[in-house]
Design goal:
Elements lengths: L12 H11 L11 H4 L2 E7 L2 E6 L9 H14 L5 E5 L12 H10 L1 E2 L32 E5 L7 E6 L5 E5 L3
Parallel strand pairs: 2-3, 4-7
Antiparallel strand pairs: 1-2, 5-6, 6-7
Amino acid sequence: MAITEQAHRPTNESEARLWDVAAQVPDPEIPVISIADLGILRDAHFEGDTAVITITPTYSGCPAMGHITNDVELALAKAGYEDFRVDLVLNPAWTTDWITETGRENLRSFGIAPPQGRAEQSSGPVLLTLGAPPRITCPHCGSDDTKEITPFGSTSCKALYSCNTCFEPFDYFKVH
């Protein structure tokens, strides 16, 4: 089960309002999903008078993080916050397990197959396995008669698939 955005939403009223402002920022690469539903919004709190938002990239080299940081800063300024900071943290590493159920449904509705299965967290080396790619459910018609066209999709976190039932191509958000 994915961690819901409520799992990290603060219970303190002023920090919850701060979270809600940042949670409205869409992912720039997949604008139908918010940074909260994608699971990269990790924390919202105050250090004295400074509003602090913590985000974790989907991977350490994600080129969208500068854009996301700017969008969060613009949202905070628009909401009236004057003293704020956006912190980028890499540990713990982001996992597709953090995508909320709402986020998964938004991906599916947009024509992107959400991750199927759970990521296996490891503190040691990552073991790569070869073999047939997983059977992925088509977000357009629901068929699992699909095939991987290439493990490289429109972004590095996605693979390109095709459906043998409705013949539509689609991105699959890979588990990691």
